[in-house]
Amino acid sequence: xELFDAIYGRKCYRKYLPKDVEQEQIEQIIKAAAQAPxxxxxxxxxxxxxxxxxxxxxxxxxxRNQKFVLExxxxxxxxxxxxxxxxxxGTRGKELYCxxxxxxxMQNILLSVYALGLGACWxxxxxxxxxxxxxxxxxxxxxxxxxxxxxxxEDVEKPQRDDWQxxxxxxxx
Length: 173
Fold this sequence. Notes:
This protein has six helices and four strands; from the N terminus they run ααβααβαβαβ. By secondary structure, it is of the alpha+beta class. Helix 1 crosses helix 5, helix 2 crosses helix 5 and helix 3 packs antiparallel against helix 6. It has a four-stranded antiparallel beta sheet.
């Protein structure tokens, strides 16, 4: 698949077939995530792959009861390692760079999922402290997003995007 086909074709899927996602595909997706750029090449991220129904059920409850979180065969929780980022970049690394780094990794995840013919949805609405408890995440690791992954159960409309020229500025704002 061509890069621009993936960028323009990727959609958010919230309905999945009851079909598992191959472990090799998950490994390929995470390898792609690890190719994302990061400040100082620190790669301050951790990925938690969740397949167990009972864990997904708990996660669904703290993610506004969004049913597709439970129905997805796989969840990948993308986490920022604030300790790693702050070790080189101090407060700016802890509060900003590690979040930027994980956002780049998440985009690679979404594009690679699409390239593999799978569907995904980026979930940002969840109770961070409860997710830490459910997934046993240490204090210096910050869960940034949950990505649901599966075989799409239906095609969805791609939302209209604003014209890029409306928010692009030349030289200064």
